[in-house]
Amino acid sequence: MLAAAGTIGLEALSADGIDAAVESREARYLRFTSPQRYIGIRSLRKTLAINIASRTSPSVAARIEGQVGCGFSVLLMKRAFLSHRIDFLSRAEAIANHDKYKVLLAALDIEVISAAETLDSEIGSTDAEIVEKGLALLKTCDFMIFDCSLENWNYIGCIFEMAYAYQMGKPIIVYTGTTNNNQRPWLRYHATRIAVTQDHLVDAVSDLARNVT
After folding, report:
1. What is the pLDDT of residues 99-154, one digit of tens each?
2. Helix 15-30 to helix 41-53 angle, to the nearest 10 degrees?
3. Domain boundaries, the chain
4. Can you name the CATH fold of 78-211?
């Protein structure tokens, strides 16, 4: 999303101005993930440019298209913040959880983001730094997926992430699996959609990706 751009008059944006907007978004992203771990900066540039173009005139769209080298008939890629079990897992196990969702949602052209990708950079960080980094990551995403499908697991960090996402006005899809978590009133109150199977989850994400702005 590029809410700020919508307030500055896209028709007046020069090519340099468009590029500056993209660079600003990249700079914010790089603040919470190291250059060594950062993947997809070109897709982020392209996504942001398409988002700008979709809100402006054909002439401005054509100028952006010349910069990024792509057509605007392509769907705008949405970014999902994946909140899932990370505590007390190895980096490899946390990444495996993350990658499972990337595969599950691959056909929907969803960019799945989670703190699992930046665990190496948390070594030696304070609690405040870890939390603030996670919140910065959440702010860049269009919606949240909360996987609470493990029975009897205390999803303390995930629950706080869900509360922050709700306060930010971000849609939240909760995957409970076969647990009884879908019966919890506080969770149901904050959830936009609750899925109990992976098929339901994919359907919920697909519906949301088409409608979220």
Report:
1. 999 999 999 989 999 988 877 777 788 999 989 999 999 999 999 999 999 888 88
2. 130
3. 4-68, 78-211
4. Rossmann fold (3.40.50)
